[in-house]
Amino acid sequence: MTANPLPGFDAFEAACKQRGFTWRPFAPVAGAGDLDWTPLGAAADADLAALQARCDGGRFWEIDLAPRARLLEHNPMLRRGSGTLPIAHQLVVFASWHGLAWHLATVPALADTGGRQPVVWLDLYDDGAVTPIASSVDRCFSLLAEHVERFAPSPGGDSEPAFAGSVAGSIATDTRLLELSGAVPMIDLLAHGTGPEPWFAELLAAARR
Fold first, then answer.
1. CB neighbours of residue 33 within 10 Å
2. How is residue 167 annotated by DSSP?
3. Which of 86, 128, 154, 188 is most deeply buried (CB count within 10 A of its CB)?
């Protein structure tokens, strides 16, 4: 597989290292760039396949990026428990906030022609509420880079505004994401739990005026 550039992930790395935050990638494993999601019933996301060729998961700032084995084990577990999370079969969770029930997941049904899938924020504290945040995994990392640069305090510092509302202005410029938010698979996801974060509902309403 040809390596894909990942400018968003590179910007996230630069921001974390500049701020002195955790940046601990795990060594890539053989064949990770040919990430196979067949067990999940979906084609692998192109950005995640490129990223797994660089590192087999890791800890980045407060984000735990799932190693390949974890990704292929954890998502079927979520689906087997789909009585409590019926939307799990529509998502592939690839990262989580360390020690918290906040997750980042792709939506394979909405992949573009290059195999890049949009990313949603999954809040399991809020009945599995879903908020779309990026049209691709690498764009999601760009948002994380912006948040770390602008808002993340040093350890022991003041509290920070919550991601991803902190970067709503940048999300508002993601025209493909806004278009996908009107597609049937995303409409179904947005209806789950308590619905998307209020800031996204406002952003979407403004875009549709």
1. 18
2. G
3. 128
* DSSP 8-state assignment for residue 173: T
Is the backbone peptide bond immediately before 164 cis, with ω within 30 degrees of 0?
Answer: yes
pLDDT digit string, tens, across residues 54-87: 999 999 999 999 999 999 999 998 888 655 688 8
Residue 188: φ, ψ to 5°: -60, -40
Burial of 66 (0-12, 13-18, 19+ CB in 10 A): buried
Query: What separation in angstroms does the CA of 39 have from each of 34, 74, 104, 165?
Result: 14, 11, 19, 33
Tokens (6 digits) for 47:
């950005």
Nearest Cα to Cα of residue 48 among 34, 61, 62, 38 = 34
Phi and psi at 102, nearest 5°, equal -110, 130
What would the pLDDT profile of 102-140 be if each residue is shown by its tens digit?
A: 999 999 999 999 999 999 999 988 788 899 999 999 999
Under 8 Å between Cβ of 55 and 25: yes
d(Cα 196, Cα 193) in Å, to the nearest integer? 9
Closest C-alpha to 161, from 171, 146, 172: 146
Give this prediction's pTM: 0.92
Residue 40: count of CB within 10 angstroms of its CB: 17
